[in-house]
Amino acid sequence: MSGFRGRDILSIRELSRADIDLVLKTARKMVPIALGKKVSRALEGKILSTLFYEPSTRTRLSFESAMARLGGRVLGFSSAEGTSVQKGETLADTIRMVEAYSDAIVLRHPQEGAARLAAEFSEKPVINAGDGAGQHPTQTLLDLYTIWDEKGGFDGRHVALIGDLKYGRTVHSLTYALAELGATLAFVSPPTLEMPREIVEHVKERGLSFRMAHRLEEVIREADVLYVTRIQKERFPDPQEYEKVAGSYRIDTDVLREAKRDLIIMHPLPRVMEIAADVDRTKHASYFKQAFNGVPVRMALLDLILGGS
Ligand code: NCD
Description:
By secondary structure, the chain is of the alpha/beta class.
């Protein structure tokens, strides 16, 4: 038994190195099924609910694809519009209903802590698909898979996280994981969007080498992985503050002239203007592969949580 059976996935911090290792290795075995080259009925008869109170393309659809590839079914909603949330139903009540309709619940919600709250009301496993500016653990698992697959490991790899490090939940979760796995980190952001202090403190306590910078040029030469993020417009209390930092960074082929030849560029997507389209054709671009990796990684996770193996 792996210890995943029936388990909530709320924060990446709850997963040990061994847990992460198991997900990555299981995901690798899932790739032929994710590609449709092999057929599996491992989750036949299982139902997954996907409750998305915030927009999503990749996360929701890759969970759906993962479940379908394993022979399971999905029900849910992609926005709270058209549900009883409009009538004032609380998250707790919605969760109590949905728990009875399915075997596990995937939840994305604008409020930090929403998935943890949902887990308190549900006996069935709850998977956090993003809670406000909090965490996004399944994105981190697919990010880790991508780094592991492309770079062969984590220890000593230079990973530069760039963009909105304040509100970006993907970089919060990823930093916690990479701090455990021994990567060398660089945090590149506008001064107003720096990585939250408690996360920086955590990295310090782990004794890892890291740096903070405001300019991409300061880190581009040594990076093995450039993890680019969107400025999270929807989290800004004041739209004028967003305007000040919108477009702070743009990766184009000019900037990449300084980069290592085997640098990989990742992005959780959607991109707005952070990566120029001409970068897509370079060998550095890993973001579409990364988005595909969401399928085998979520298959692995669902099979570990819901499957009989
Ligand atoms: C991210 C998210 O929702 O946090 N998207 C995703 O899940 N791939 C990143 C973002 O919205 O910028």
